[in-house]
Design the sequence.
């Protein structure tokens, strides 16, 4: 029997402290300055506290890092999160299963299509629904496209953070092409809400697959250009090698996942280890780093972009004909023309929309490989149309937790590079 | 043979009047060129990045600079709390002025013949023009340091500190690289250095290593990518000019581009033959004519702009160095290289002089060129290894790629072997 450990936590339900004044969030800044020995004690310099963020061009949102600097060397780093807290998980408890999908767009907003798919994969396991073959392949396409978007944004912003501006615009142009495809499919660029429990919002329109093929033909050329600009650039290599090193053990202990973990040499990819959407039938490689530094993360993510293209090419080839949505009246709406002309269909439509589909009692968690790492949605159902508890496993949040470990002892410029290499999205971290 | 009054030096009154006119001329042209360099930067960057660039104000966006200028004049001048007001106001002016007055000694064309005498196309033909140039360009750091310090902002302070350290370090490497120019030219007056290059070969050919060191230092001195650490946008927001707005900010902006143009002019004058037209001696022999003046001025402008383009091109291509890498590049690589090169060039010149070779003769040039080529090859082999600035490996080795692939294959076979 495991030993239990008691942690005493002073909780205040009113938000007021013992003196009756509003409680303030401890910022971690008090008593810091003299608590650590100086790196060069004979100089007896004064440490400087500096705020990176929440308004700062390089924090990728509203992350706030309180840095204690000795000269330009980071002695201590305290990340503060929560500036973008929206209460997604709580809101989810008051929404039907299909109504939660738009909230998943908004948490990791660079991977909205991937979140939509991840969400419905969990919900469908709860409902016990088997999706159609065409839907499976379309979802793979959706996930890989959003992985490409997310990695392109990471690539561009990392370039800007390290000072190279041009690859940023090149990658954002390619991102624009993917957004055009997604807009043609779902009608929205960023907030796609592209899935429904049991299928997709719509089948892809005519000619869409040709557009995707055109993108797949041109995209590797841009990747080659960026590769030529960065991979063997002495300045780029000098700025990234040896920064923020995480050994495999440390990476596992911190609970890192995704490219952060793979760059450290642990070949864990949910698509290979816990396959979903028939990923085991696709031929693709999982790039693995050796040093676990910023440069390895760059190489791993860059290779993943190429692997995504490979997966997409195979998916386009095998895309079968057939229905997208399952034939299950519990979750799928009747066709609109029937709902406005037939009484039974109208009642069916009304019941599905107003009451919502009801899953059996139970709980489930389905992990997927999001661009940032292992992501999953955890549901607890009591048999009603709304989940009792809906929880997100945000990979960015877990990955960010390692930033104090990674930046301490490095220079201020390296903080920016390391932070960029984590590939955080604050919408997902603060939720 | 009677002397042509148009080829003689002018009288004192004419000289003074001509100097005032030249000052106005240079200042006006310089300001317009600086303004259009900002537009050129935006247009070239747009071209590199597959964009359009400014194209709404005037034809091809040519009036954009006027719009920007008006906007900056009309903007509110903010003054943050607790700034040191005199220094806060002084800093942009200091930056701006030092960038401006460096141009006084740069010769920009062949002498202009007029009925009142021959007018040299340089505002002030100082006998120590070279030292003046070095002195003035190092003064520019005060504007930045004072701006960073007086702003009462930690980011600005860090920017100012970085800038002072960077400029002081690269000042030395730059000065050392220029010693070679002095050795070859045997003179510190800029028109004399141009004349030396007209007679022989351009310095960029004779002492390429010095030219390379000067080039790198010039990028560092002007705070341009890859050495734009003082204003590193992603780390320090805007560095030393974070707290400036309106016209004060604009002064820093103008000073940056003015420094780019000054550095280009220095490179052109010291290493690329100044206003000399290459592959012909028409422009530097015989009596001065107006046509020659115009042609050489155009040549100078062309060389200058080619170099400004190079500045812009580099800026939109390379990432930024880190502070310690910048310092180690300056102190551990450029400075020793420059010192070693001085020794090599000085001994070579001494030996050639002792052997009686004429300074303008082919033997002299050929010997310098040969030594120079050897040094260049050694330098590039060293730098190309990339190990000088990066702590670890700099190349993605073929074996490493293969290793990655093997690891991926191994784990995929393991995954397929397990039944799930």
Sequence:
């Amino acid at each position: 029997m495991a030993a239990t450990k008691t942690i005493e936590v002073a909780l205040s339900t009113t938000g007021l402290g013992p003196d009756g004044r509003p409680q303030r969030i401890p910022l971690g800044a008090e008593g810091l300055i003299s608590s650590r020995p100086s790196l060069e004690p004979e100089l007896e310099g004064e440490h400087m506290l500096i705020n990176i963020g929440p308004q700062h061009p390089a924090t990728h949102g509203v992350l706030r890092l309180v840095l204690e600097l000795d000269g330009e060397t980071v002695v201590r780093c305290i990340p503060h999160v929560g500036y973008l807290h929206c209460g997604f998980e709580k809101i989810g408890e008051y929404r039907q299963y299909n109504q939660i999908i738009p909230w998943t767009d908004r948490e990791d907003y660079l991977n909205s299509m991937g979140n939509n798919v991840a969400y419905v994969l969990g919900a469908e396991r709860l409902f016990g629904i088997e999706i159609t073959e065409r839907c499976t392949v379309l979802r793979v396409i959706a996930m890989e496209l959003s992985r490409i978007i997310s990695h392109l944004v990471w690539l561009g912003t990392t370039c800007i953070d390290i000072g190279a501006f041009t690859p940023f615009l090149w990658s954002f142009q390619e991102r624009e092409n993917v957004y055009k495809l997604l807009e043609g499919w779902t009608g929205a660029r960023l907030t796609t809400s592209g899935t429904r429990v049991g299928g997709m919002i719509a089948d892809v329109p005519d000619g869409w697959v040709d557009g995707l093929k055109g993108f797949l033909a041109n995209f590797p050329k841009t990747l080659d250009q960026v590769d030529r600009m960065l991979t063997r650039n002495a300045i780029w290599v000098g700025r990234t090698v040896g920064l923020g090193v995480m050994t495999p053990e440390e990476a596992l202990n911190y609970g890192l996942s995704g490219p952060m973990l793979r760059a450290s040499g642990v070949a864990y990819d949910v698509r290979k280890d816990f396959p979903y959407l028939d990923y085991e039938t696709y031929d693709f490689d999982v790039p693995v780093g050796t040093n676990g530094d910023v440069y390895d993360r760059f190489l791993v993510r860059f290779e993943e972009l190429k692997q995504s293209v490979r997966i997409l090419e195979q998916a386009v080839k095998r895309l079968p004909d057939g229905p997208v949505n399952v034939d299950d009246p519990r979750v799928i709406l009747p066709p609109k023309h029937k709902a406005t002309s037939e009484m039974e269909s109208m009642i069916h439509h009304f019941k599905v929309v107003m009451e919502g589909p009801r899953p059996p009692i139970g709980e489930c968690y389905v992990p997927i490989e999001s661009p940032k790492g292992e992501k999953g949605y955890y549901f607890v159902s009591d048999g009603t149309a709304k989940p009792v508890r809906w929880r997100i496993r945000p990979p960015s949040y877990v990955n960010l937790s390692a930033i104090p470990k990674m930046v301490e002892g490095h220079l201020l410029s390296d903080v920016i590079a390391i932070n960029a290499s984590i590939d955080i999205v604050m919408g997902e971290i603060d939720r | 043979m009677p002397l042509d009054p148009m080829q003689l030096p002018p009288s004192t009154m004419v000289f003074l009047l001509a100097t005032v006119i030249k000052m106005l001329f240079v200042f006006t042209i310089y300001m317009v060129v600086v303004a259009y360099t900002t537009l050129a930067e935006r247009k070239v960057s747009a071209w590199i990045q597959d964009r359009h660039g400014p194209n709404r104000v005037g034809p091809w966006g040519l009036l954009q600079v006027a719009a920007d200028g008006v906007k900056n004049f009309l903007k509110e001048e903010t003054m943050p709390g607790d700034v040191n007001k005199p220094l806060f106001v002084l800093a942009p002016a200091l930056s701006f002025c030092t960038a401006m007055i460096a141009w006084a000694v740069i010769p920009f064309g062949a002498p202009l013949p007029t009925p009142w005498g021959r007018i040299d196309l340089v505002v002030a033909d100082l006998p120590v023009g070279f030292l003046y140039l070095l002195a003035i360009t190092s003064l520019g750091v005060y504007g930045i340091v004072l701006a960073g310090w007086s702003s009462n902002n930690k980011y600005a302070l860090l920017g100012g500190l970085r800038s002072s350290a960077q400029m002081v370090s690269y000042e030395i490497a730059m000065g050392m690289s220029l010693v070679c120019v002095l050795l070859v030219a045997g003179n510190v007056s800029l028109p004399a250095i141009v004349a030396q290059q007209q007679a022989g070969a351009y310095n960029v050919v004779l002492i390429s290593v010095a030219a390379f060191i000067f080039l790198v230092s010039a990028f560092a001195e002007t705070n341009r990518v890859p050495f734009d650490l003082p204003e590193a946008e992603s780390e320090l927001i805007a560095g030393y000019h974070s707290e400036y707005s309106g016209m004060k900010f604009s002064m820093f902006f103008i000073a940056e581009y003015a420094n780019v143009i000054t550095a280009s002019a220095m490179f052109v004058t010291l290493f690329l033959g100044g206003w000399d037209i290459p592959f012909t001696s028409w422009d530097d022999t015989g009596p001065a004519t107006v046509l020659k003046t115009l042609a050489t001025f155009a040549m100078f402008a062309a060389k200058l702009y080619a170099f400004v383009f190079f500045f812009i091109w580099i800026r939109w291509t390379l990432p930024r160095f880190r502070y310690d890498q910048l310092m180690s590049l300056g102190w551990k690589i450029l400075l020793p290289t420059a010192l070693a090169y001085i020794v090599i060039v000085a001994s070579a010149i001494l030996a050639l002089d002792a052997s009686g070779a004429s300074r303008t003769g082919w033997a002299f040039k050929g010997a310098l060129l040969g030594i120079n080529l050897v040094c260049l090859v050694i330098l590039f082999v060293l730098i190309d290894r990339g190990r000088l600035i990066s702590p670890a490996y700099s190349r993605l080795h073929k074996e490493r790629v293969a290793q990655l692939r093997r690891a991926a294959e191994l784990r995929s076979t393991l995954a397929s072997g397990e039944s799930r």
